[in-house]
């Protein structure tokens, strides 16, 4: 007996797109068949007629219940709020960060995240291990154990991001030591790459010039910084053999560096954000223009188009958000480039905006849409094929997109925070139904799933992803 039969939709599977029926039993997809081909008794038939059926989205880059830089007594929205918005937006798995602060090792960081997430999520979840500053040798030696425990991704920063921050940047020697350990034990580097010397110099110069308000953010976090830092990390990755995933690629030079590295056969991957492909530094000029800011910074229209070109032609591999949800009051509190809050509350809009802008407006094939919103993140982070695929044996994480839903987004459509940079955006198609591991989470505009449905998902990366450019 099947618990559910999803019938009548245009289904996007790893093998192609077609009018197939999906059979679900328990938490798993157990069958894919031609329409009418499943004859088992069924508990409930889901009519997906006129809908596009895709695997649940995977958000590879979310800062949840995280410290807010410059606001020591505040933190970003908690798992309950972020995961609720995620399932409304068609995302069923979130990857947060277990932060190894000075004095805390990797496993203490993971335990801290477990205490925040377990029993408090509507979506499934996991964590990258974030390694900060002068990473102690005993922490580096924990990397193989963390990979074995199901946490195979390790984030480092090559910059402190802004002045008066001294506890983020890992110097190149520490980066190389981490890369060597990660490469030796089938892990993946996750890198926020900017050149700190350039960034810090430009902050000082902009202050001396009297051009220090938020509208000049892109003049501190520049294309040159991204170019030099990406290429430096790629050379270190080539020396150490470490597969590397660049987060929030923002400039055409970052896309080009990744393209060239992959042409050499290196396992280098890139992520961009749906706000980077939708807005530019010109938006900083608007009233409360700091609300559009995510570090490194928005860039030019030429860069925005280069990011779309990278997504469409395989140079960039995932669409993320850098989810960092705050109130509007906190988001606009900083008015200078050294105190503006980064990040935005985009987890709910990621799948829908990418469908409108990618599929409808740019002709992106549906399989490529699934790749950049789900399947590639699953492959790169070690979730595939449990996640990121509509296939027998995969988790029944399934989303229905209604391509006929045409409207202007309002705050009434969204379920987190008190502002959105997407308010007023014209959308053509939107997620309307979400299932997580065989449980209906969202239907008819209402939340059906329970808090605590989400589970911690252990991860293991396919060695082929780490050996040569895939995706």
What's the quick description here?
The protein is globular. α7 packs parallel to α8. 30% of the residues lie in helices and 24% in strands.
Please characterize this protein's 3D structure.
The chain is α/β, with parallel strands linked by helices and 471 residues long. An eight-stranded parallel beta sheet has the order 8-11-12-13-14-15-16-17. Strands 3-2-7-18-19-20-21 form a seven-stranded mixed beta sheet, covered by helices on one side. 30% of the residues lie in helices and 24% in strands. It has two domains: 2-55 and 392-415 and 428-447, Roll (Urease, subunit C, domain 1), CATH 2.30.40.10; 57-382, Metal-dependent hydrolases (TIM Barrel, Alpha-Beta Barrel). The chain is built from 13 helices and 21 strands. It is globular.
Please name the CATH topology of the largest domain. TIM Barrel
The CATH homologous superfamily of the largest domain corresponds to Metal-dependent hydrolases
Largest sheet: 8 strands, parallel
Low-confidence stretches: none
CA(first)-CA(last) distance? 36 Å
Radius of gyration of CA atoms, rounded to a whole number: 21 Å
Mass-distribution shape:
globular
Instruction: Give the spatial strand order of the biggest sheet.
Output: 8-11-12-13-14-15-16-17
Write down the CATH class of the largest domain.
Alpha Beta
- In the CATH hierarchy, the architecture of the largest domain is Alpha-Beta Barrel
- Number of contiguous helices: 13
How many domains in all? 2
Helix fraction?
25-40%
Structural class: alpha/beta
Give the total of beta strands: 21
Task: Indicate the mean pLDDT.
Answer: 97
Our estimate of the beta-strand percent is 15-25%
């Amino acid at each position: 007996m099947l618990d559910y039969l999803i019938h009548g939709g245009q289904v996007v599977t790893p093998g192609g797109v077609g009018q197939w029926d999906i059979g679900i039993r328990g938490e798993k997809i157990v069958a894919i068949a031609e329409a009418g081909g499943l004859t088992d008794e069924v508990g409930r038939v889901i009519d997906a007629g006129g809908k596009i059926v895709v695997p649940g989205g995977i958000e590879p880059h979310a800062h949840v219940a995280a410290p807010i830089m410059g606001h020591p007594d505040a933190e970003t929205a908690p798992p309950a709020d972020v995961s609720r918005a995620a399932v409304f937006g068609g995302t069923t798995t979130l990857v947060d960060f277990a932060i190894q602060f000075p004095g805390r090792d990797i496993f203490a960081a993971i335990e801290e995240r477990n205490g925040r997430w377990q029993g408090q999520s509507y979506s499934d979840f996991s964590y990258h291990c974030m390694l900060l500053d002068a990473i102690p040798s005993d922490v580096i030696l924990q990397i193989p154990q963390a990979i074995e425990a199901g946490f195979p991704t390790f984030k480092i920063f090559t910059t402190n991001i802004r002045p008066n921050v001294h506890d983020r940047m890992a110097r190149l020697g520490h980066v190389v030591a981490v890369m060597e350990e990660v490469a030796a034990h089938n892990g993946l580097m996750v890198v926020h790459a900017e050149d700190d010397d350039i960034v810090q110099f430009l902050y000082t110069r902009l202050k001396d010039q009297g051009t220090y308000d938020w509208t000049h953010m892109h003049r501190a976090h520049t294309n040159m910084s991204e170019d030099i830092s990406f290429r430096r990390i790629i050379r270190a990755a080539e020396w150490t053999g470490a597969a590397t995933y660049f987060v929030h690629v923002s400039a055409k030079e970052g896309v080009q560096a990744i393209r060239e590295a992959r042409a050499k056969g290196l396992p280098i991957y890139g992520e961009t954000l749906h706000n980077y492909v939708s807005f530019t530094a010109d938006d900083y000029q608007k009233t409360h223009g700091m609300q559009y800011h995510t570090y490194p910074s928005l860039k030019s229209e030429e860069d925005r188009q280069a990011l779309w070109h990278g997504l469409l032609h395989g140079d960039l591999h995932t669409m993320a958000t850098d989810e960092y949800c705050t109130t509007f009051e906190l988001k606009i509190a900083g008015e200078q480039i050294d105190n503006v809050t980064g990040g935005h509350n985009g987890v709910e809009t990621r799948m829908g905006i990418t469908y409108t802008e990618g599929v409808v407006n740019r002709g992106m094939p549906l399989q490529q849409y699934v790749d950049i919103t789900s399947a590639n993140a699953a492959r790169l982070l070690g979730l595939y094929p449990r996640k990121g695929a509509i296939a027998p044996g995969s988790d029944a994480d399934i989303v229905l997109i209604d391509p006929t839903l045409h409207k202007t987004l309002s705050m009434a459509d969204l379920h987190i925070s008190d502002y959105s940079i997407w308010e007023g955006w014209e959308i053509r198609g939107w997620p309307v139904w979400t299932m997580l591991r065989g449980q209906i989470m969202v239907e008819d505009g209402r939340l059906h799933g329970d808090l605590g449905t989400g589970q911690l998902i252990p991860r293991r990366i396919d060695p082929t992803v780490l050996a040569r450019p895939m995706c």
